[in-house]
């Protein structure tokens, strides 16, 4: 029995049904077409409709890629004009030849004008902070909030990949109110998020714009083949204590370590670790439960392991305890969740 199943996918990530529903709505596809793409991505329509269910990173990436290919639009339905499949390749080629990430982002903003009639991306460098803001065009018919969120994430993901590490952000502003999929945005943008702002924009330290681009064409081919996974997933967290604890649990087993074990391994006192987590609005048990939830969902969706085996590996005393926890996390039982992903 594999008692460390999470090591196979250290970057465990799931998306809420709210987030996936908002994305599907933004594509503008009819229900018949969406049913097919959900089926091909091993996602049941019932999973999408349930308010607390979650979809794995792999499932969402397959869904996104198939819809983009079908629509011949790399930002599927998110803009008033489509971005033909292959455009990302040329944007990356222009960015890779830039001397710094600041120049690369500027080139992307100019390149996007070829396809984006809805808004313009403006890069501004101040003495301390830099911003990439979204400036709506006067003739724009308006755009879906999901369009702004995912397009900003594309830029952040590309920039992070180009420098070989996460491009840290100070904050991200949105003009809309806090959506139901707020938790997902917190994963995609590991920094402070603000809503109901006058302008949508990302803010970061200006000095980061001087970082040199480090990628080459052979690496680009692998990146494009995996998209959107490599620009979706945050490389680091804005919550360093939570990130350290989560990574330790991933590298060991989320079922067994205590806060004392983790604190000793990370060479800080239990009191200091508890304080750091509290300052980030986190608790050790919440981190542990969230990780066990994501691992459980991933294994139910992508393995043939029995529910009893998954429950045991994740440290539950018996399957019934796991059933209760899983229903609390997702609103459905483990068997019901697996059945919907297999339909």
Descriptive tags:
single chain; 343 residues; 2 domains; five-stranded mixed sheet; 17 helices; globular
Structure description:
This protein is of the alpha+beta class and 343 residues long. It folds into two domains: 14-232, no CATH class; 239-342, Arc Repressor Mutant, subunit A. 52% of the residues lie in helices and 10% in strands. The chain has 17 helices and seven strands. The protein has helices spanning 17-27, 31-40, 45-49, 57-71, 87-96, 101-112, 145-163, 182-188, 217-226, 229-232, 240-251, 259-265, 270-279, 284-302, 307-313, 319-330, 334-342, and strands at residues 14-16, 54-56, 119-125, 129-136, 171-173, 192-194, 200-205. The strands form two sheets. It has a five-stranded mixed β-sheet with strand order 3-4-7-5-6. Strands 1-2 form a two-stranded antiparallel sheet. The two termini are 27 Å apart. Mean pLDDT is 85; it is low at 1-11.
């Amino acid at each position: 029995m594999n008692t460390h199943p999470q090591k196979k996918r250290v970057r465990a990530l799931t998306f809420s049904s709210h987030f996936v529903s908002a994305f599907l709505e933004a594509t503008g596809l009819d229900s018949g077409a969406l049913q097919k793409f959900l089926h091909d991505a091993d996602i049941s329509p019932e999973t999408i409709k349930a308010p607390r269910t979650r979809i794995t990173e792999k499932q969402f990436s397959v869904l996104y890629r198939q819809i983009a290919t079908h629509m011949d639009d790399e930002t599927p339905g998110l803009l008033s004009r489509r971005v033909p499949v292959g455009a990302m390749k040329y944007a990356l080629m222009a960015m890779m030849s830039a001397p710094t990430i600041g120049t690369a982002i500027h080139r992307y903003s100019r390149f996007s004008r070829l396809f984006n009639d809805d808004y313009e991306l403006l890069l501004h460098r101040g003495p301390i902070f830099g911003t990439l803001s979204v400036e709506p065009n006067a003739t724009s018919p308006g755009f879906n909030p999901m369009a702004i969120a995912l397009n900003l994430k594309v830029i952040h993901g590309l920039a992070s990949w180009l420098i070989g590490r996460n491009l840290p952000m100070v904050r991200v502003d949105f003009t809309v109110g806090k959506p139901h999929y707020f938790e997902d945005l917190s994963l995609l943008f590991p920094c402070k998020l603000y809503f109901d702002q006058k302008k949508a924009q990302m803010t970061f330290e200006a000095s980061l714009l001087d970082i040199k681009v480090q990628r080459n064409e052979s690496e680009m081919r692998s990146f494009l083949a995996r998209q959107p996974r490599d620009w979706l997933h945050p490389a680091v967290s804005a919550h360093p204590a939570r990130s350290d604890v989560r990574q330790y649990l991933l590298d060991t087993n989320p079922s067994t370590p205590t806060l004392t074990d983790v604190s000793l391994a990370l060479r800080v006192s239990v009191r200091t670790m508890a304080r750091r987590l509290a300052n980030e609005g986190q608790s050790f048990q919440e981190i542990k439960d969230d990780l066990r939830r994501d691992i459980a969902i991933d294994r139910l969706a992508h393995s043939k392991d029995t529910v009893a085996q998954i429950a045991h590996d994740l440290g539950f005393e018996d399957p019934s305890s796991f059933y209760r926890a899983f229903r609390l996390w997702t609103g459905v039982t483990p068997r019901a969740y697996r059945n919907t992903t297999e339909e």
